[in-house]
Write a structure and sequence with these properties.
The protein is mainly beta. It contains two helices and 34 strands. Among the domains are: 49 residues, SH3 type barrels; 134 residues, Sandwich (Immunoglobulin-like). The protein is elongated. It starts with a helix and ends with a strand.
């Protein structure tokens, strides 16, 4: 019922925003500019829900102080970041008007004021108009008619005499500007806004031997800013730009303030360059970014990129300071990884923005099948991209702790632990494989015996590379001494 009542209110509202000059208060007018005056717009989108908009418009301005209303801007503008520049025009003060015209907001503005209640006779269809004062508009409406009786609810339709000051049909940035000379002026409004974001998505296709892949990159744009940017010059910034969190949320955001005067082969559509400590990607043609729209733009194409598949068994640091209770051992998964080098000689060699890489491979019937995905960070040139695609089906591992003892320390160390392990690695494939066993050993550690030689890749990791024959198995045993 409440929705029907609010809709009935809106049926009789007459909008007065069609004229370029609109009334704003008694004795005052404002010059309204919309996207019909727009000569160009540029949008630079950052990774974390932030964009810089540069909106250029051409207006015929009179001399002196002008109330200027910028309409059709982002509804999620950060008004404190806005800058208006143009031939000698300066801003004295500005307001961001975001109290929008809705049936409910209109009714609330009329509390204490008179409206007309229009009722229709159920048989004759004749309309009757009565004057009433709005006493309340909280969770419904309370009306007092001229004969002093009071009614709740609306016994008909409501007619309003006009639209109250500062109640807008869409978000508007209003400015009091000073213009020293009359004539046509080219103005540019720059501002930061949320509601615009982008992310990179990649599609990789592995060859039959898992040694090369074709890589395609796409930029996905999302616009929930409440505005459409038509034929915009689009730029994307890859990198982590610092933003200061707000100190507090203001209850009244209608603020007034002073504003000072003013390889991989990138696709033919997208050019890349360094900017400060970030990377800037520029679309080579204008594009329209519609409100409430997701758009995809090609970022890169790279063919026959060399890659390397690797099987990894990774242990846990907690293995080394407590005994196992399972005599039969513990089953563990063996991860499958694909690694590529972001180098020019490998058909890449460009800054690659963070995003999700989805990997596909053809089956025996030449049908592409999805085989896994992983998220990558921003990757500069000559760095590795490593993708975890899942766990191997035909490779298994069983870990058993064959010995554990705790030895009291010698003064410098509180405790010393000795632990012995047995890893049974099995391969059900028709070809031999190599499994990389990575053991993150904590504390001050030493391998005191082992069946295969290890390599100390870092201060807390011992690594074995174990070759397992086709349809076969291999045993890895080792003993550690760890001091804490």
């Amino acid at each position: 019922m409440r929705k029907k009542f609010l809709f009935a209110i809106l049926l009789v509202v007459v909008f007065c925003f069609c004229s370029p000059v609109a009334p704003v208060a008694a004795g005052k007018t404002e010059l309204v500019t919309t996207t019909r005056d727009q000569t160009g717009v540029s949008v630079t989108i950052y990774n974390r829900n932030l964009a810089l908009v540069k909106d250029r418009r051409e207006l015929d301005l009179p001399q002196g102080e002008i109330n200027l209303a910028f309409r059709e801007i982002s509804a999620r503008i950060k008004p404190e970041t806005s800058i208006l520049s143009g031939s000698g025009v300066s801003v004295i003060e500005q307001n961001f008007e975001f109290d929008l015209l809705t049936p409910e907001s209109l009714l609330k503005k009329y509390v204490g004021r008179k409206v007309e209640v229009i009722t229709r006779h159920p048989t004759s269809g004749q309309e009757t108009r009565r004057s009433a004062r709005v006493l309340s508009a909280n969770q419904g409406v309370v009306l007092q008619f001229n004969d002093k009786h009071i009614e709740t609810g609306v016994p008909g339709r409501l007619s309003f005499s006009g639209i109250p000051e500062n109640l807008r049909d869409r978000p508007t940035l209003t400015m009091l500007v000073s213009n020293p000379q009359a004539g046509k002026k080219s103005l540019e409004l720059s501002y930061l806004t949320s509601g615009l974001g982008w992310k990179a998505d990649y599609v990789a296709e592995l060859n039959a031997q898992d040694t090369k892949l074709n890589l395609s990159g796409w930029v996905t744009l999302t616009n929930t800013s409440g505005a459409t940017y038509r034929q915009a010059r689009l730029q994307l910034v890859a990198g982590d730009v610092n933003q200061v969190p707000p100190e507090m949320e203001l209850n009244d955001r209608n603020m007034r303030f002073q504003v000072s005067k003013a390889m991989a082969t990138p696709t033919p559509n997208m050019a890349q360059e360094e900017m400060f400590e970030y990377h800037l990607y520029t679309l080579g043609r204008p594009t329209t970014i519609a409100d409430r729209q997701t758009k995809q733009v090609a970022l890169l194409q790279a063919a026959a990129v060399p890659c390397r598949k690797e099987f990894v068994l990774r242990g846990g640091s907690y293995y080394y300071n407590q005994p196992y209770r399972k005599a039969s051992g513990m089953k563990e998964k063996i991860g499958v990884f694909v690694e590529i080098e972001n180098r020019r000689e490998d058909h890449l060699g460009m800054p690659i923005p963070a995003g999700v890489v989805r990997v596909y491979k053809e089956d025996s019937g030449k049908n592409l099948q999805f085989i896994g995905e992983d998220r990558i960070d921003h990757t500069p040139e000559n760095e590795k991209i490593r993708l975890h695609l899942g766990d191997a089906f035909d490779l298994t591992a069983t870990r058993k702790q064959t010995d554990f003892k705790k030895i009291r320390g010698d003064g410098r160390y509180n405790y010393t632990y000795e632990a012995a392990f047995e890893l049974k690695l099995k391969n059900a494939k028709d070809q031999s494989v190599e499994i990389k066993v990575v053991e993150p050993v904590p504390g001050d550690w030493k391998i005191i015996s082992e069946s295969l030689p290890h390599k100390k890749e870092s201060s807390n990791s011992a690594v074995w590379r174990v070759n397992i024959p086709a349809k076969g198995e291999q045993m890895l045993t080792y003993r550690t001494r760890v001091r804490f």
